[in-house]
Design goal:
The complex is a heterodimer of chains A (740) and B (155). Chain A has 740 residues and is α+β, with helices and mostly antiparallel strands. Helices cover 47% and strands 19% of the residues of chain A. Chain A is built from 24 helices and 23 strands. In chain A, the strands form five sheets. A six-stranded mixed β-sheet of chain A has the order 15-19-20-18-17-16. A five-stranded antiparallel β-sheet of chain A has the order 4-1-3-2-5. By secondary structure, chain B is mostly beta strands. In chain B, the strands form two sheets. Chain B has a five-stranded mixed β-sheet with strand order 8-1-2-10-9, with no helix packed on it. Classes of the chains: A alpha+beta (740), B mainly beta (155). At the A-B interface, α15, β22 and β23 of A face β4, β5, β7 and α3 of B.
Chain lengths: 740, 155
């Protein structure tokens, strides 16, 4: 269990992966939409790179091989060797999708299908080739294909060195590298860094050991030496700096273009440099086996380092040093980027959801307690002093503010959900041969985390429907004088305390004639029923209704719009449909901001107060003496505008009292059940309409038929929240048993 | 046989004792979360007859059991003088209504005997056993079976 430290690291890895994947998608979208900044490509690259690093640590070979190839091509885009064409971006998107799949598969500990990965890797390699072919073969590049992280990392840096050759500079680079204590403490080693530079072609390596104390006093943990290397001018500054990327902040690094090689540099002599002649060939042979391995470890640590909370002065120092350097472009891009990443990291914290929920529960208690207190003072016989009533008012205000703020913690922007939908659009479009774009609006709209999670399935279904059934084929669209590119628009907006999400397509709209025919054919409506346009549209939500002649494997996965409707209702939401033939169809989902509270109608049944969710009530009716008809002793109906609606006697179904005979004082709540049927709840009176805090009954008791949950009223008593569908089932069972 | 019914171990256990009519019962103090005055519970539909309903204990919704009825004795007609003992068994929290809490007693679990089969008035399944104390008989409640989780579903 959690005693295994690796499991904890795994959890962190997957959390980070989720964030990185999101960052990756954001970046790719920005690149597609042309809203990218200088840092976008770098951010995308970093995301893929970090995923690869983590994946390597967990031995997720497939993930490593895809992300490695992905990264290599991204790197070419980053260094302006490749143009991010729409085709390439499309490939990137598919790669991002695949990475997501692979991460998910790894999380579920499933085996992923390598076939698609191979395909993607092959597609990526095509982009890699032109530049790759011109590069001289690298000793470590060959084993890269086997997916071993130890080797896959190596060609990145080495390739980079060769591919990036910038001819402009003539003077050699003089690299001065002064390690700090931290460098060793973070498990890095100067030796390896120097070895890499030697592999890249360092012509001269010097070390200044003048600061070293005598051998006896030498603390092994502290570096004292200053390294000086001469690098050929053919290597770009960025490449040299890249070698030190993982020790950024843990060392002083100077990369300058010297007029003369350091061996002849009088300054170097003055400083006491000891020229060190190293046989480059030997070094390569000896080190090539372990250098990449070390590098792999560095890669693993990279994400941690880049999110270190404090902005290290060294970053600033690097940026300054760069300003005077001859080739500053690429470094200028990444230096501010790092600082951005750092400030972002410090502005959010990761908190266990349980802690937040506990806080929310406590605030719920506070709210109830506050209202009990207020009620208690109201019932006092002696008048309350001004001071006390002011205090009570302040308490109420504060409680409300605290509640709002705490609820805001659970609220999350809907963006990740929308991003997932763009993938659905892409995939559905591909498999139906339709040309679709998804336009999203209001991604920043915030809504309860649980609602976002539980909205994913119904929304996926609706999006698939919109693409599969809503949009016409490209040919039909052209014939009808429309743009070939279909548009699905996904919008979210806050409206009067609820979140409204719209799924709109600019397709053919609802074929009402056909819908009506099918509904009649399937016996869902009477053949002579007079239906308004919107009533016909909403037939789509009836169970057992599907307009597609053949069940396609896309939207028709055994679930219909009725399931969508039910899952949204379970979230306390409503869904409706509008359509304009030939132009568009719009599904509108209206959701509560949170699942912890809901708008309820407080009703009285016998001497008990109960709550019915407002979202389930269509209208309330005070029946006249003639509108209720008793069909049988156990079945009554009420006439609502020409339609007979069965009555559910709530008090009786819950077993609190015998059936009500005299309905003259009763009130009927007209409600629509999940099957689309209407039913009428018979209650004794309506008291109030207010927000109630939802409490589960399952923890300490269990499910109660006909009761969805309970709430605590202002007086501290418990009121049952009725489950309309459950009551309907109860009434059907009781009717059958009476009949039998 | 579960551990709870293993009578061989000898150990001192602190118990809260309470009266119900002329009977004396006790419950392991470790299972007792708190003791509070009686409040009128909200009736739960389709509940077993011994479930009085649910109350709000600082935001937690708890079912309340009429202990006498659970034991097979006539139902109590509780008023403000009655007491609710809140028990925590596993992850489940519920309350039992009793006449009054009388004492905290230390009992030797080792002297526990199986309830005699002749005591017809009490539902034996809810007792762990009985312990003789002075000249009275202490009935030890088996909290595990007092309110099975499935009780609501089974009803």
């Amino acid at each position: 269990m959690s005693s295994d430290p690796l499991d904890e690291i795994r959890v962190v890895f997957f959390q980070e992966c989720a964030e990185l994947l999101e960052e990756l998608e954001d970046g790719l979208y920005a690149m597609r939409d042309g809203t990218e900044t200088d840092d976008t490509v770098n951010a995308v690259f970093r995301a893929v790179h970090s995923i690869k690093g983590g994946a390597g640590a967990f031995g997720l070979d497939l993930l490593v091989s895809v992300s490695h190839q992905f990264e290599t091509v991204l790197d070419k885009v980053r260094s302006d060797q490749l143009d991010p064409t729409p085709e390439l971006l499309d490939l990137f998107m598919r790669c991002a999708d695949k990475l997501q799949d692979l991460v998910q598969a790894a999380k579920d500990e499933r085996d992923a299908d390598p076939a698609i990965c191979d395909e993607l890797v092959a597609a990526l390699k095509q982009y890699d080739q032109p530049a790759g072919a011109s590069a001289p073969p690298q000793p470590a590049a060959a084993p890269a294909a086997d997916g071993d992280v130890a080797f896959t990392v190596a060609p990145l840096d080495l390739d980079f060195g060769e591919d990036d050759a910038e001819p402009a500079a003539d003077a050699d680079w003089l690299v001065t590298f002064t390690p700090h204590v931290d460098l060793y403490q973070r498990g890095n080693d100067c030796c390896h860094l120097v070895s890499i530079l030697i592999d890249m072609g360092a012509t001269n390596v010097g070390v200044d050991a003048s600061q070293s104390p005598v051998w006896d006093d030498l603390p092994a943990e502290t570096p004292f030496m200053v390294w000086t290397l001469t690098m050929p001018s053919a290597i770009s500054e960025a490449d040299i700096r890249e070698v030190f990327e993982f020790v950024d902040g843990d060392c002083d690094l100077k990369v300058e273009q010297g007029e003369t090689p350091p061996a002849a540099d009088p300054a170097a002599d003055d400083m006491g440099f000891v020229p060190l002649k190293l046989d480059i060939e030997d070094a390569t042979d000896d080190d090539v086996d372990f250098v990449p391995t070390k590098l792999a470890i560095d890669v693993d640590e990279a994400p941690e380092e880049s999110t270190a909370p404090e902005v290290d002065p060294a970053v600033k120092a690097t940026a300054e040093a760069v300003a005077i350097a001859p080739k500053p472009e690429s470094k200028k891009k990444s230096a501010p980027a790092k600082q951005d990443a750092k400030s972002e990291a410090s502005s959010t914290i990761r908190v266990d959801l349980n802690r937040v929920d506990r806080l929310i529960n406590l605030i719920g208690e506070l709210v109830i307690n506050q209202s009990m207190l207020a009620q208690g003072f109201q019932s006092l016989s002696t008048p309350v002093s001004q001071q006390l009533s002011d205090g009570l008012n302040d308490l109420r205000q504060l409680t409300r503010d605290i509640q709002d703020s705490v609820m805001a913690i659970r609220a999350q922007p809907i963006k990740p959900l929308f991003r997932r939908m763009s993938r659905i659009v892409r995939e559905t479009g591909e498999s139906t041969g339709k040309n679709v774009q998804l336009v999203t609006e209001g991604e920043a709209t915030e809504i309860d985390k649980t609602i976002i999670e539980r909205l994913s399935d119904p929304l996926t279904h609706m999006i698939r429907n919109a693409v599969d059934h809503g949009l016409e084929t490209p040919d039909t669209r052209t014939e009808n004088g429309k743009e070939e590119l279909g548009t699905v628009r996904l919008t979210a907006v806050h409206r009067s305390g609820r979140v409204v999400i719209e799924v709109a397509d600019d397709g053919a709209g609802i074929n009402r004639k056909k819908v009506r025919e099918i509904a009649i054919e399937k016996g869902l409506v009477a053949a002579d029923a007079e239906l308004t346009d919107s009533e016909i549209d909403n037939l789509l939500f009836m169970p057992g209704f599907s307009t597609a002649k053949e069940v396609s494997n896309l939207s028709g996965r055994g679930v219909g719009m009725d399931v969508v409707k039910r899952s949204i209702q379970n979230l306390g939401g409503r869904v409706s449909l509008e359509s304009e033939p030939g132009k568009r169809s719009v599904f509108t989902i209206s959701l509560p901001l949170t699942l912890a509270v809901m708008d309820g109608m407080i009703v009285r049944i016998d001497d008990q107060l109960m709550v019915v969710s407002l979202s389930e009530i269509i209208e309330t009716i005070r029946p006249t003496s003639t509108s209720i008809q008793h069909l049988t002793p156990s079945q009554s109906v009420i006439l609502v505008r020409g339609e007979y609606v069965p009555i559910i006697d709530v008090g009786y179904e819950l077993g609190f009292r015998p059936r009500v005979k005299d309905t003259s004082e009763a009130v009927v709540l007209l409600s629509e059940t999940e099957s689309g049927d209407r039913s009428a709840l018979l209650v004794d009176g309506i008291l109030d309409q207010r927000q109630v805090v939802i409490k589960g009954l399952e923890d300490n008791y269990g499910d109660v038929p006909g009761v969805a949950a309970v709430t605590i009223l202002g007086d501290g008593n418990i009121a049952l929240i009725l489950d309309v569908d459950g009551l309907l089932r109860l009434s059907e069972t009781s009717r059958l048993s009476t009949a039998a | 046989m579960s551990e709870d019914t293993d009578l061989s171990t000898s150990q001192s256990v602190k118990c809260i004792s309470f009266d119900l009519g002329e009977h004396e019962f006790c419950v392991d103090i470790m299972a007792v979360k708190e003791i509070r005055g009686w409040t009128k519970p909200t009736p739960l539909p389709h509940a077993p007859p011994f479930v009085c309903g649910a109350i709000n204990l600082r935001g937690t919704v708890l079912p309340i059991i009429d202990f006498a009825m659970r034991m097979g004795l006539p139902a109590t007609e509780p008023d403000e003088s009655y007491v609710t003992i809140i028990l925590e068994v596993g992850t489940q929290v519920f309350g039992i209504v009793v006449d009054a809490v009388s004492d905290i007693v230390t009992l030797d679990w080792g002297t526990m005997q199986r309830p005699p089969e002749l005591e017809m008035s009490v539902d034996e399944s809810c007792l762990l056993g009985i312990i003789a104390r002075d000249d009275s008989m202490m009935r030890v409640i088996n909290t595990n079976v007092l309110f099975p989780r499935q009780v609501a579903a089974a009803a």
